[in-house]
Design brief:
The complex is a heterodimer.
Chain A: H1 2-30, H2 35-47, H3 54-64, H4 71-83, H5 98-131, H6 138-149, H7 155-169, H8 189-226, H9 229-236, H10 241-253, H11 255-266, H12 268-271, H13 273-279, H14 284-293, H15 297-325, H16 327-332
Helix pairs in contact in A: 1-4, 1-15, 2-3, 5-8, 5-11, 5-15, 7-8, 7-13, 8-10, 9-10, 11-15, 13-14, 14-15
Chain B: H1 7-12, H2 14-33, H3 35-53, H4 89-125, H5 127-142, H6 145-155, H7 162-170, H8 175-189, H9 192-199, H10 204-240, H11 251-260, H12 269-297
Helix pairs in contact in B: 3-4, 3-12, 4-5, 4-7, 4-8, 4-10, 5-8, 7-10, 8-10, 9-10, 10-11, 10-12, 11-12
Classes of the chains: A mainly alpha, B mainly alpha.
């Protein structure tokens, strides 16, 4: 039974990845416009001369990308490329490989989003747990409720407001970028300092917007947990309040939070697109944004595929590891 | 909404009117017990009024580029200022806010419609149909929505109108309704009164429409509000990336123009502050409505609101 469910889960994973790759293949081909042709004409218009040889160039590129082959040959070649991470070349930064561009941007995104997500998770979960705990002062609960309302606001809108206040009006934090313009990234203490300074605002906007989400989930789980028999029993045994809170209520109420945490860590790469755009942070989001603006289709499809792949891998790992956290699942499945 | 008292009805059928008035009073007293719902509805109605009453106060033609002086701060002539391309931002709000809400509304209806049909089919029929629908919804749920929408939208870039925008967003708005409705149907299916209806010879569609749907109404309403919210969120996200209707002054497009013309570091705060404030109101309003509907659907959560 156990192996069967693992096989099923891994099968689902490949189904998702294959589905994503296929969607990536089909959608551009449904569109009447030819990305290569439109890109080349755009380049011709930009450089300001009429390109007479554009038809030949389109033909040459189509042969290069294998677009003159029958559709099913293209499809299998495409699948092979995707699974070997061969996303082709960028159209606007021509000699650059899409994979290299993605790999350069990835550490920025992962660094920023992992930190922000973990901080939001910690603060939010503890706040939510305290909000549902009887002995906590009413004042704390009221203040926390205001913060919960902020979870309704999309983080990039919060980001714009923070950027205006801290970056433009008070000028205490940098306005854009991941590091000062004109410097070369290096691993030294002062440089790490500037990286942190640059990441405060984008991180803060994500933390403020996400905290409420964690707190709401945790609060309702705590309420459910408080009604359990083992809580009454723990109280009857005369255990200290603090022990009951952390050892009995918190630990049990946390379980669904772990699931969501793993899911939102998986969403990291996609979740940051707009924040990165607003702060011009040199990660995946900004790469995607510039690619959209410049109709650089191979980058768009490469990023989309990578994002879906990371999310698929995270959810797969999560599902396989979850029984270790919650022993009840082991028997249940 | 059965709560609106129509005056012609009052003349023709007084009894009907008194029933309606009673309902209205019931609704009023219910709102008092459920302030979250009332507050949310109040905000949303207020936002709808901007689009309805607004055209009386401003020439909507001014929402087009190059119709007024650019970069004017708020003044008596331009209460919300003007943008870099010569749009009167008050006119932009009056025209654009309803457009943004319409995208969310259409996508919400389409999403809920598909979700309801699939959810009922999966939950009621079970078996193979259920497995296929559930797997499809689950697979699509693990796929990051915005990213797939980016693929869609960047392919049809430039030719997007309000309707296309709504459909693109709706294409990923049906999975949550499908899941919630399916699980509700699964639990309702086994209830006594449904069994009774089945034994007394009601047909499947009859059972669905007379027994299941009325009991699911609060859930359907909740799913609808959720779907509208996520659709607006997704459409704003796409628009802020420049993948929206280029010729329509929706709130997301306004934010996009403000970002691409560096309104932030040029100190043109009135350009981006208004759309953001209105969107924040919209999201907060939707959140309060869904909190209120949650309580309506599941009175047990009242305990948690202490």
């Amino acid at each position: 039974m156990r192996t069967r469910s693992i096989v099923k889960r891994v099968g689902l994973f490949f189904l998702v990845i294959w589905g994503a790759a296929t969607v990536n293949f089909v959608i551009p081909r449904l569109s009447p416009s030819d990305p290569i042709r439109s890109r080349l004409s755009a380049m011709a218009v930009q450089s300001g001369f009429v390109q007479t040889g554009i038809e030949e160039m389109v033909k040459a590129y189509q042969a290069k990308f294998g677009l003159d082959q029958p559709l099913y040959v293209q499809y299998f070649r495409y699948l092979k490329d995707m699974f070997t991470f061969n996303f082709g070349y960028s159209l606007s930064l021509y000699p650059a490989q899409v994979l290299d561009l993605i790999l350069n941007a990835l550490p920025w995104t992962i660094g920023l989003l992992t930190m922000a997500t973990l901080i939001a998770f910690l603060i939010g979960t503890i706040t939510g747990a305290l909000m549902a705990w009887p002995g906590v002062p009413q004042l704390f609960k009221s203040v926390a409720s205001i913060f919960l309302t902020m979870s309704a606001i999309p983080y990039y809108l919060l980001g714009l407001m923070l950027l205006y206040l801290f970056g433009f009006v008070w000028k205490v934090l940098p306005l854009y970028g991941g590091y000062p313009a004109g410097t070369v990234p290096s691993v030294s203490l002062p440089f790490i300092g500037t990286i942190i300074r640059h990441s405060i605002l984008p991180a803060l906007s994500i933390v403020l917007a996400e905290m409420g989400f964690w707190a709401i989930g945790m609060r309702s789980m705590m309420v459910t947990t408080e009604g359990e028999d083992y809580m009454v029993f723990a109280e009857a045994r005369g255990l200290r309040k603090r022990t009951i809170f952390s050892g009995y209520a918190l630990r049990n109420a946390m379980l669904p939070q772990y699931t969501s945490l793993a899911l939102s860590l998986g969403r990291i790469v996609s979740g940051s697109v707009l924040v990165e755009v607003i702060f011009a942070y040199p990660g995946i989001g900004t790469l995607l944004y510039t690619a959209i603006k410049g109709s650089d289709y191979f980058i768009i499809y490469g990023v989309v595929f990578m994002v879906i792949l990371t999310l698929g891998v995270t959810t797969l790992l999560l599902d396989l590891l979850y029984p270790l956290l919650d022993p009840r699942i082991r028997q249940g499945a | 909404m059965g709560t609106l008292v129509g005056s012609p009805q009052q003349e023709i059928a007084p009894r009907e009117a008194s029933v309606n008035r009673e309902r209205l009073m019931n609704f009023g007293s219910y709102i008092r017990r459920n302030p979250a719902l009332g507050f949310g509805l109040f905000i949303i109605i207020l936002l709808l009024l901007i689009g309805i009453i607004g055209p009386l106060f401003v020439d909507t033609e001014r929402s087009a580029p190059a119709s007024v002086l650019p970069d004017q701060p708020p003044s008596r002539e331009f209460p919300l200022g003007t943008d870099d391309q010569g749009r009167d931002l008050f006119a932009v709000v009056v025209v654009g806010l309803p457009l943004t809400m319409r995208v969310g509304f259409i996508a919400g209806i389409v999403g809920l419609g598909i979700g309801t049909i699939l959810g009922f089919t999966a939950g009621y029929l079970g078996g193979m149909t259920d497995t296929i629908i559930r797997t499809l919804a689950d697979v699509l749920l693990t796929v990051p929505g915005l990213v797939v929408l980016i693929t869609f939208a960047s392919t049809v870039k430039g030719t997007i109108g309000i309707g296309t925008m709504a459909l693109i967003v709706a294409s990923l708005a049906w999975m949550w309704p499908t899941r919630t409705i399916r699980s509700q149907v699964l639990s309702l299916r086994e209830r006594g009164y449904v069994q009774l209806a089945k034994i007394s010879g009601m047909s499947t569609p009859e059972i669905i429409f007379y027994e299941l749907v009325p009991n699911l109404l609060p859930y359907l309403a909740g799913s609808f509000v959720g779907a509208v919210g996520s659709a607006v969120l997704a459409s704003i996200g796409l628009e802020a990336l420049g993948l929206g209707p280029q010729n329509e002054p929706t709130m997301g497009m306004t934010i996009y123009w403000a970002i691409s013309f560096n309104a932030l570091i040029r100190g043109l705060w009135w350009w981006w502050l208004t759309p953001i404030a209105l969107l924040v109101l919209l999201f907060v309003g939707l959140m309060f409505i869904s909190l209120g509907l949650d309580e309506l659907a599941n009175p047990r959560t009242r305990r948690t609101n202490s």
